[in-house]
Amino acid sequence: MASTGIQLFLDMLAAAGVDTIFGNPGSTELPLNDALVDDQRFRYILGLQEVPVMSMADGYSMAGNRLGVVNLHICPGLGNAMGMLYNAYREGTPLLVTVGQQDRRLSFDEPILGGDMLAVTKPWTKCGIEVNRIQDLPMAIKRCIQAALTPPTGPVFLSLPVDLQMELTEASNLPAVTLPNVHTRPPRDSIEQAVALLATATNPAIIAGSRLVELQAEGELVQLAEAIGAPVYVEPGTTHGRLPIRSDHPLNGQGLPPWAPGIKERLSGHDVILVTGMDLFRLYIYMEPSNAIPETAAVIHIDEDPEQIGKNHDVAVGVVGHSKIALSEITHVFNEHLDEVTASRVRQRTKTITEDLQASRQKLQAEVDSQLSSEPLTPLGLMGAIGRVLPEDAAVIEEAVTTTNTTLERLGAIKNTTGYFGHRGWGLGWGLGCTLGAQLAWPDRPVLGILGEGSAMYGIQGLWSAARYNIPATFLICNNAQYHILKVCGQTMGLPQANAGEFEGLDLIQPDLDVVGIARGFGIEAVRVSKASEVSDTLREAFSTDKPLLIDVPITRETKSELNYG
User: Fold this and answer.
1) Rg of the chain on CA atoms, in Å
2) Cβ-contact 127, 150 below 8 angstroms
3) What is the pTM of this model?
4) Which domain, by its residues, includes 420?
5) Which of 302, 321, 356 is the last residue of a domain?
6) Interatomic CA distance for residues 99 and 158, integer angstroms
7) Is residue 89 scored above 60 in pLDDT?
8) CATH number of the domain that residue 225 is part of
9) Domain count, the chain
10) pLDDT at position 211, please?
């Protein structure tokens, strides 16, 4: 029986386990939307603009640990989505980004909307294909899905001419998506070299990154940290997208700063540093000293991709293999050769680290408590009001970096590893849509998006999708009426007017944004609260309801000169 190209596309998606498509259609995507009218295998989530469409798919994919599928309009729609494609590329999110291309019979005439989208997307995708023969469509779909889901995972791009979508084909026996087993064991000698360094270390440390969550290796990380008696520092805020260790674990050394000098200061005194689940490093603003790793520290770097090992920093031992397996084997061999002298050092280190971290947490909690009564709330006071009511299974999506400042993590308020999503690409507008996508993937978990009012405006159209599909996520707007991170960056860069407290184009005032009015205009309930008790009470209620809610919280507007991670 003959099928159209778009029916074949949907059949292969269904066979690959896809049940949700995020989209914003145009004329070249109409065959897809037409076919979905009576295809009960899929739900279609419409977004009013491509930024929330892409970020919803991103959050859905990351939370559900599955392929996300996005259907965008041709060149202009793809252009709107490019910032969110960059985010997905930096995260390694497995997204299948599809667009319609102009009718092939018009291509010679250079038609309106048409263009070379493969060249546009190539830098930020693992694979890009424009299908020009219906016979190639099945293998093109298979190739794209496999590329997206095979580590290192990432977005892929598929362009489908509109006439090919409607073309009939007799294709049968569609190819199945096949994924390789990537649980590669690292070489034994590299494991033994790593263990030898760790066993003789006076003050070892671990730097762990977001990819451990995606590899489901959080347990192996904790076992190694406890075995060797080392603090686990979380990768810098510029790439800290997931939480590889519970924030309340006694060995959680908290996040590293985004600048090289701050990282080097935090790592000083460690003679062996094991790096896993991250790139070493992707920094933000150049500062001296530019080398973030202390010269006296020996680095052990675990990665699935050998190209990443020694790429930016010298390493003493490179361990190539699946991180989950590598961490497990290092722990096993370390324990196998553990003697009483080393065991005693481990116990003493663990005691010292635990006591120091607990003291830091208590000091921070006291500072937070002292600011809970302020009006307007300080960033610390606001985070304290959130942290005291955050459920253990909550998911937190964060796009308000100078307000959140890893405070919830430093307080130990995030008590699960799967439910934290921070900004890895830093293309603004991502947080609101990601919150919706995570809630769609986890309908039974409370999901909270903590967003700056400025960043929220880049993807604010996503609120309409929240109302249209009754997605019961909660959005908390940290409203300081400015692009605060840019003021911090200007001062960090030593710009003269910034250091004098003068800024152009960085304040969102005259008029202030009416976030509550905007949200209600998109069809969701919104409130403005100013006291810590009101924040906590409103969040408690929001977490127990089945409707979306936006909470606008005015906070202090002064400019901090630095970010205090850990």
Assistant:
1) 25
2) no
3) 0.95
4) 372-554
5) 356
6) 7
7) yes
8) 3.40.50.1220
9) 3
10) 95
